[in-house]
Design brief:
Shape: elongated
Bound molecules: adenosine-5'-triphosphate, magnesium ion
CATH class of the largest domain: Alpha Beta
Helix content: 25-40%
Radius of gyration: 28 Å
Distance between the termini: 51 Å
Number of strands: 16
Strand content: 15-25%
CATH architecture of the largest domain: 2-Layer Sandwich
CATH topology of the largest domain: BirA Bifunctional Protein, domain 2
CATH superfamily of the largest domain: Bira Bifunctional Protein, Domain 2
Strand order of the largest sheet: 1-5-6-11-10-9-7-8
Length: 410
């Protein structure tokens, strides 16, 4: 350890930023629970293969972003870079196939070795959902509408756009891959070195490249929509029809592919122009082949994940805490009574700030600073008669209140 500070790309989350992050998570949980999703917590690290075999061996995550380490027993482990692989691993290892559909959500830290910048951290929080066992387009519509409702509840519906595309089924993908490879080969010299490798290993990945030279080539590439077979294009139409029905606005983006290998049919992203280059706040898609690929049989899947910190940055208003009551003892001899009164008020459900030192004036200043709405002032003479003073800090009005009537009065 060099200095007393946290590792590059990691942050201490506290105060207003933490309150916003908490609000993002509590809003998301409340929305998805209405759709029947239940929380699952999987371990923060898994066997490395859980990710390396399933996210795709040319994906950015697997090639350059994973935190892998060998533990003392010689096992290769990895800090989770995303949530889906771990949840599907749990689905299989816990035998959840018996009772389909399975609808789960998760939240927690993810780890990626990336270049830190605004909205891009090495430890960040994701909230995500996974629906397993429903292969029909209605599931896509439901899962996307859930994402939309969640952002609406956060007050962001005007700030985000739903981008959507279809990658089709395996046949469509093979169709498209052939056309794409032919096209990319005719522009081979213009591609980045990484994309030359991708062209050999996984040409679809070139579409997702962030390099300027690749983007130019990709702009003229064949369109995915022209390669969808009948079944796939009908599936996509049904998804869009469902979104229309619910009045959810979207933009069909023919260039949208997702960075991981496991996607098929619908892929989508909710983006904003308010975060610079880090515009994607929520992303997901259908992954019908993943469960089988991981050895769990033929079970369809669809889900999304959002970046909690990115969403929190979009919340303009501070998240207010409940205003407290300030309990203010005047003189040493009433300290014990003040402690008792604070305890009683807290048990009755109030947030109570109990100033620990200073004279009356100092404590009143403190009470205003914490934005208290009432002050309970406890003096020994009054106390002898069983009363305290309750001051309304907004109106300045004050009155004597019997101790046993205090909770009711406030
Ligand atoms: P990007 O293109 O920005 O790298 P991605 O495709 O790698 O995103 P996903 O794996 O789809 O991202 O993750 C879903 C969401 O998680 C993203 O839309 C984003 O909001 C958030 N996210 C991903 N990586 C980071 C990161 N390094 N720091 C903060 N949030 C992140
Ligand atoms: Mg990324």
């Amino acid at each position: 350890m060099e200095k007393i500070q946290c590792v590059r790309g990691t942050y201490d989350l506290y105060g207003a930023a933490k309150r916003k992050a908490k609000k993002v998570i509590s809003t998301a949980s409340a929305v998805v629970e209405k759709y029947g999703f239940e929380e699952i917590e999987t371990p923060i690290f898994e066997f490395t293969e859980v990710f390396s075999r399933n996210l795709g061996d040319t994906s950015d995550i697997v090639t350059k972003e994973m935190y892998c380490f060998e533990d003392r027993g010689g096992e290769s482990l990895t800090l989770r870079p995303e949530g889906t692989a771990g949840v599907v691993r749990a689905f299989i290892s816990e035998g959840m196939q018996q009772n389909l559909p399975v609808k789960m959500y998760y939240q927690g830290p993810m780890f990626r070795y990336e270049r830190p910048q605004k909205g891009r951290q090495r430890q960040f929080t994701q909230f995500g959902v996974e629906m397993l066992g429903v292969a029909t387009p209605q599931a896509d519509v439901e899962v996307i509408s859930m994402a939309y409702e969640f952002l609406e509840k956060l007050g962001l519906e005007g700030a985000v756009t739903v981008e959507i595309n279809s990658l089709g089924d395996e046949e469509s993908r093979n169709n498209y891959r052939e056309k794409l490879v032919a096209y990319l080969k005719s522009h081979y010299d213009e591609l980045s070195e990484d994309s030359k490798v991708r062209l050999e290993k996984n040409p679809l990945r070139v579409l997702d490249s962030k390099e300027e030279c690749d983007k130019k080539v990709v702009a003229e590439a064949p369109l995915y929509s022209d390669s969808l077979n009948e079944t796939s294009s009908q599936f996509f139409k049904d998804v869009l029809k469902g979104l229309d029905l619910l009045g959810i606005k979207y933009h069909v983006n023919n260039r949208l592919v997702r960075g991981l290998d496991y996607y098929s049919h619908t892929v989508f992203e909710l983006t904003t122009d308010k975060l610079g280059a880090q515009g994607t706040v929520l992303a997901g898609g259908r992954y019908d082949g993943l469960v089988a690929q991981m050895g769990g049989g033929d079970v369809a899947g669809i889900g999304w994940a959002c970046g909690v910190e990115r969403l929190a940055m979009l919340l303009e208003q501070d998240v207010d805490l409940a205003r407290p009551i300030a309990v203010i003892p005047v003189g040493e001899d009433v300290n014990d009574k003040a402690l008792e009164i604070a305890y009683k008020l807290r048990k009755a459900g109030f947030r109570v700030e109990h100033g620990y030192s200073g004279n009356l004036k100092k404590r009143m200043i403190k009470a205003n600073k914490v934005n208290a709405f009432k002050a309970v002032i406890i003096g020994s003479d009054e106390l002898a008669q069983g009363v305290v003073t309750v001051k309304d800090l907004d109106s300045g009005e004050q009155k004597s209140v019997k101790l046993d009537k205090l909770v009711e009065e406030i």
